[in-house]
Amino acid sequence: MTAKRVNIKRVYEEPARSDGTRVLVDRLWPRGLSKARAAVDKWLRDLAPSDALRRWFHARPDAWTMFRKRYLKELARPECVEALSELYRLANQRKKLTLLFASRNEEQNNATVLKDLLEGMRKPPTGTGPGGVRAVRDRQSKKMPG
User: Fold this and answer.
1) How many Cα atoms within 13 Å fall on the side-chain side of residue 96?
2) Less crowded by CB within 10 Å, the N or C end of the chain?
3) Cβ-based neighbours of 80, under 8 Å, separated by 6 or more
4) Among 104, 32, 117, residue whose Cα is nearest residue 75
5) How far is CA 43 from its chain centroid?
6) Residue 63: per-residue pLDDT
7) What is the CA 118 to chain-centroid distance, rounded?
8) What is the pLDDT of residues 50-78, one digit of tens each?
9) From CA 57, how far away is CA 66, in angstroms rounded?
């Protein structure tokens, strides 16, 4: 149901054929990197942590567990539904998926949280799994004036 292989990689590293589909999950385009050199297939900027959460974590790098919890809560917000749905779709249709990030911290960043979410290693909060994403999208479409 999820990708056979989900990798994470700094966007500044050299692209490789083995990366498969390359998805940038940062809000801002990586500084000093051309689009050609980045070789990004999809940019899902709405999956990035809010600026406030990103700044909060940058000031408290030892607060990884709290960052992760707050970030997963942000992913359950309605504005993340489309991007999260697209990420699950890409993970389900591709054999290899590489989540790209710019952070220097290669172990503790939003891409590692998204990788865990895709691989189902940790239980996501209500609304962030593929079923939850569909349910929120269905509710939103029913609210739209017809």
Assistant:
1) 13
2) C
3) 46, 47, 74
4) 117
5) 10
6) 94
7) 9
8) 999 999 999 998 999 999 999 999 999 98
9) 9
Q: How far is 96 from 141, CA to CA, in rounded Å?
A: 31
Q: Which two tokens stand for residue 83?
A: 């991007």
- Report which of 2, 10, 1 is spatially closest to residue 98, judged by C-alpha positions: 10
Residue pair 97/91 in contact (Cβ under 8 Å)? The answer is: yes
Ramachandran assignment for 93, one of left (phi > 0), alpha (psi -120 to 50 degrees), beta (any other): alpha
Cβ-contact 96, 19 below 8 angstroms: yes
Residue-wise pLDDT for 115-135, tens only, equals 999 988 544 455 555 555 555
> What is the C-alpha separation between 118 and 6, in angstroms, rounded?
8
Say what the pLDDT of residue 120 is. Answer: 84
DSSP 48: S
Q: Hunting for tokens 């030892």 — which residue is that? A: 62
Per-residue pLDDT tens digits for 30-40: 999 999 999 99
In degrees and rounded to multiples of 5, residue 69 shows phi and psi of: -65, -45
pTM of the model: 0.79
